[in-house]
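User: Hi! I have a protein structure encoded as tokens and I'd like to know what sequence might fold into it. I'm fairly new to this, so please keep things simple.
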């Protein structure tokens, strides 16, 4: 259902394809691990009153200390708002029988109709 509303939400058409190579680790896993390691090290080296304890402090640390990566801070309010939207959107959705047999999903309309293909 959320895929069907992607164009309405973001003004971009979308489809979803699953590939065997995409079910493993990617570059973002290594980047995330590096960010956590650097932030943890920085926090442990600080006095108790200057440790990284909030998402905003982590965001500011990353912006200043980690080059070549663009960071975005998403507020709790934005997450909560999106969660409410998704919760109401997904509460009445139904599972597509045999979902695991399909490789590609394309929205047909914004009412929740999708085309599911075994090949793309």
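Assistant: Happy to help. Inverse folding works backwards from shape to sequence: for each of the 120 positions I chose a residue that suits the local structure. Here it is:
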């Amino acid at each position: 259902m959320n895929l069907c509303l992607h164009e309405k939400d973001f003004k971009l058409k979308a489809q979803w394809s699953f590939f065997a190579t995409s079910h493993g680790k990617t570059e973002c896993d290594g980047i995330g691990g590096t960010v956590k390691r650097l932030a943890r090290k920085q926090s442990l080296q600080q006095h108790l009153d200057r440790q990284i304890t909030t998402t905003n402090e982590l965001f500011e640390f990353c912006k200043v200390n980690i080059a070549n990566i663009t960071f975005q801070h998403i507020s709790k309010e934005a997450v909560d708002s999106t969660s409410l939207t998704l919760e109401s959107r997904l509460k009445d959705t139904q599972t597509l029988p045999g979902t695991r047999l399909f490789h590609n999903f394309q929205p047909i309309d914004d009412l929740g109709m999708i085309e599911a293909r075994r090949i793309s």
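A useful reference point when you look it over: Residues 27-44 form the longest helix (18 residues). Feel free to ask if any position seems puzzling.
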